[in-house]
Amino acid sequence: MSNRNLSIFNKLRPVSVGFDDIFNHFESMFNDDYYSLSPSIGTNYPPYNIVRSGENQYDIEIALAGFSRDDVSVSVEDSVLTIETKQDNHSPNQNEEDGVIHRGISKRYFKKSFTIASDVEVKNAQLKDGLLKISMERIIPEHKRRRNINIS
To answer: Given its phi and psi angles, is residue 86 left (phi above 0), alpha (psi -120 to 50 degrees) or beta?
Structure first.
């Protein structure tokens, strides 16, 4: 990697073990090519919040005024949560057909992706009152929980 000498993670590498994949993933996110390949980065449409709703609970809230459940898909693959609208098959003259004189509520195509940790599980997604809420929980396996080690 050409910018490896400038990596902000270089200070963490000498004091951590097994995080190379994570550091490399985040370094790639800072790469300009990553931003051009992902339409969700660099745009604020649709607006969203990331909320910590408990010690190990997180919610992503996305404002989706005008969208129905059938218009949106939510998927998780390889630690990437993706929210995407289904292709819009409306005709160019839809405003005239549905009586809308001015369309100020945008209902355009978008694809927004979030990288989630491998120990975070997506529990559910709910669309209510124009707000899509995706609830997640960090599942801490027994072997990662704090335990006291007996000294012999």
So the answer is: beta
Least Cα distance to 126 among 47, 56, 68 occurs for 68
Question: Mind listing the pLDDT tens digit for each residue in 91-149?
Answer: 555 556 678 788 787 788 899 999 898 889 999 999 999 999 999 999 988 888 888 99
Instruction: Find out if CATH 3.30.465.10 is the number for domain 43-141.
Output: no
Count of alpha carbons within 13 angstroms of residue 113, beta-carbon side = 13
Nearest-angstrom CA–CA distance, 122 and 99 = 39
The confidence score (pLDDT) of residue 81 equals 94
Q: What is the pTM of this model?
A: 0.68
Q: What single string gives the DSSP state of each residue in 4-41? A: GGG-TTTTTGGG-SS-HHHHHHHHHHHSHHHHHH-TTT
Sorted by where each begins, the domain ranges of the chain are 1-37, 43-141
Distance CA 45, CA 100 (A): 22
